[in-house]
Amino acid sequence: MKQGFMLVFDGSNGAGKTTVIKGVEKYLTLKGFDVLLTREPGGTPIGEKIREVILDPSTPEMCYMTELMLFGAGRAQHVQEKIIPALAQGKIVISDRFDAATFSFQHFARGIDLETIIKINDLALAGFTPDMNIILDLDPNEGLKRVISRGEGLDRLEDEKSDFLVKARNGYLKQAEQSPEKFEIIDAAQSKEAVLSDVINIIDSLLES
Ligand code: TMP
User: Fold this and answer.
1) Which of 74, 91, 136, 166 could be a cystine partner for 50, CB 3.0 to 4.6 Å?
2) Strand partners, 9
3) What is the rounded distance in angstroms from the CA atom of residue 48 to the CA atom of residue 51?
4) Each residue's pLDDT tens digit, 114-134
């Protein structure tokens, strides 16, 4: 793996991204890489304020276009303030969600047309693109059960009808089908150990490439 590399972990809500990301950080740090963890929505002070607005369950009236543009605004700041400078310093950037989530949630689940999604994403990314998306794939109903069993309240998007999360999940699978060179799908219904081991195998092959 060249220095200055960006990995994204994404997928169904409750699929265990946080645990896997911590395991990967430990693995890469032990190998001597300088790793930067970040997330979307969020990742910068401005992005974290935008995150609060986007996920607030007390404002279900948010229009789809407002939501899309807020994700885009946070991403523009994230790329310019944090990601590009970290990659320039040779870091491995690991983001908990990124642009693939906008295609899954705002296009495949919300139904905003693809052209508009591409326009907003292109404005936010300004030519940047992550190197690999690792999708932790899980039945959304199982994912929501896990979120609830952790005692966490549901955010504004998790509070949608279960059909919404099914469409978002299928959105990731479709993106992976269309761009296999940019996506790896992991079965997140396995044990945490098996999921991490699958992910480390992928990372090992990236390290060798
Ligand atoms: P998180 O709970 O994994 O931090 O993600 C927050 C929620 O935001 C999750 O339901 C997915 C959603 N999301 C989008 O709808 N579009 C996006 O572009 C991103 C990054 C996240």
Assistant:
1) 74
2) 96, 134
3) 5
4) 999 999 999 999 999 999 999
Whole-angstrom CA distances from 3 to 128, 130, 148 are 16, 13, 38
12, 13, 30, 71: which is closest to 203 by C-alpha? 30
Question: For 86-118, b where at least 16 C-beta lie within 10 A, e where not — what string?
Answer: bbeeebbbbbbbbbbbbbbbbbbbbebeeeebe
pLDDT tens digits for 138-151?
999 998 888 888 88
- Where does residue 16 rank: exposed (0-12), middle (13-18), buried (19+ CB within 10 A)? buried
Q: How many beta carbons lie within 10 A of that of residue 46, not counting itself?
A: 15
Closest C-alpha residue for ligand 1 atom 21: 101
Query: Cα–Cα distance between 165 and 139 in angstroms, integer?
Result: 9
Residue nearest to atom 10 of ligand 1 (CA): 157
Taking the CA of residue 96 as reference, the ligand 1 atom at the shortest distance is: 3
**Does residue 108 line the site of ligand 1, with CB under 6 A?**
no
Kindly tell me if the per-residue pLDDT of 39 is higher than 90: yes
Which amino acid would we find at residue 134? I
Structural domains present in the chain: 5-208 (3.40.50.300)
The structure's pTM equals 0.95
